[in-house]
Amino acid sequence: MSKDTLTVTDNRTGKTYEIPIQNDTINAIDLRKIKVSSEDFGMMTYDPAYMNTAACKSTITYIDGDKGILEYRGYPIEQLAEQSSYLEVAYLLIYGELPNAERLKWWEYRISRHNFIHQNLIDLIQAFRYDAHPMGILISSVSAMSTLFPEAKEVDDPAVREKQIWRMLGMIPTVAAFAYRHRIGRPFNFPDNSLSYTANLLYMMDFMNQRDYEVNPVLAKALDVLFILHADHEQNCSTATMRGVGSSRVDPYCSLSAAAAALYGPLHGGANEAVLRMLQHIGNVKNVPDFIDRVKKGEGRLMGFGHRVYKNYDPRAKIIRKVAYEVFEATESNPLLEIAVELERIALQDEYFIARKLYPNVDFYSGLIYQALRFPIEYFPFLFAIPRASGWLAQWQEMLEDDEQKIMRPRQIYLGEARRDYVPLDQRS
Ligand code: CMC
């Protein structure tokens, strides 16, 4: 008869242990009873980069990396991208269910009520050099919010938590737009609440007193779809950071600022920026084979390819590829698209990439769309961070409400010097 347990024999002692299995997982702490002697600390698992360790139970996002499936609260990403809006998806992530019409209106109102930023934040943004990287401005502005809303440290109060969520989702696009306007030396546009979340962002960035100004609805919709695709991705580096920092019970502004810092790295949300720089560096379709050869020799990576979890085409990349063509119909075509398509074509039939299951990820085409929308390249990771804020906040809230969670504190295997006595300075060689 099958039993949901794992039997382990320790060959050092000959002892056998029976360990319960739940959700195809064993509890790491159950290994602690495997000891050589009673003074022994007990067995641990070693898992650098958490390659095979589940650090939480979650009901937010489901990924099947082998089949290329991504679902938020059970809804397939393809259906959400096609039929939903970013703010509706943000509600779904945070509250667990799709809103009815009345709740959606309420939610949109709550977010738009919080999209003005404090004058101190405006002063802070203006204190940056004109060429400061926008992610530096995001990270600093969000952590500065922690000083403006000190009540946010009441993280165990659900009503206080909810208000900080509205504030962050409201204010982050405004910080994004102001950081952009600061960079190009133009006055700031304050939010227009008659517009959708993404149309308002484009308006705040673009508007220059033109007569009959209207945000291009195709571009606002494309950005909205990109926002849906980027909203959450379970326990990636930045989300794990949000949970890890938040587990100290610090306020969510500090946690989100840390998560944004993690996202900034070129192996994570900074990859969209790196893809564009790579395409510019390749410069011409005829240089693609040579570039691929250099990647295979280990002289760099094909940015926008590969994923820790997806060992199949990233479902987000499939949707983004389609959006890219729609955007290029509304804008002028991007010559770098041709290079990207050729890179993808060659890589997908090359043994190096096939053997390692390297497929285009979400960042491979998103940068081309952002560029068509005329965002500067440095701006791309910020455009990833705006929608990811809803995922980070949903995950943060779930962590706080989870009785099994505590302050995050991994173990280590100490391999340094054994105890030794201090040597005074004049006796050291
Ligand atoms: N180009 C060339 N070779 C690669 C690439 C790549 N993009 N990605 C992985 N490999 C190779 C790697 O060299 C290794 O080969 P070998 O076994 O011969 O040493 C093998 O594939 C496994 O790579 P890994 O680094 O162990 O895989 P990982 O799961 O630790 O890394 C990754 C995942 C996303 C960091 C990596 O694929 C990568 O650096 N990709 C490029 C950066 C990128 O596009 N990042 C965006 C990720 S999706 C958005 C997000 O989550 O933020």
In short:
Helix 13 packs parallel to helix 16. This protein has 17 helices and 6 strands.
Characterise this structure:
Pathway: Carbohydrate metabolism; tricarboxylic acid cycle; isocitrate from oxaloacetate: step 1/2. It catalyses: oxaloacetate + acetyl-CoA + H2O = citrate + CoA + H(+). Belongs to the citrate synthase family. By secondary structure, this protein is mainly alpha-helical. The chain has 2 domains: 1-45, no CATH class; 65-401, Citrate Synthase, domain 1. The protein is 50% helix and 6% strand. It has helices at 77-83, 86-95, 101-112, 119-127, 134-148, 158-184, 197-206, 217-230, 237-246, 252-264, 271-282, 288-296, 315-330, 335-348, 351-355, 363-372, 380-401; strands at 5-10, 15-22, 25-26, 61-64, 69-72, 75-76. The strands form 2 sheets. Strands 1-2-3 form a 3-stranded antiparallel beta sheet, with no helix packed on it. It has a 3-stranded antiparallel beta sheet with strand order 4-5-6. A hairpin with a 4-residue loop joins strand 4 and strand 5 (69-72). Helix 4 crosses helix 6 (158-184). The longest helix is centred in the middle third of the chain and has 27 residues, at 158-184. The mean pLDDT is 95. The structure holds carboxymethyl coenzyme *A.
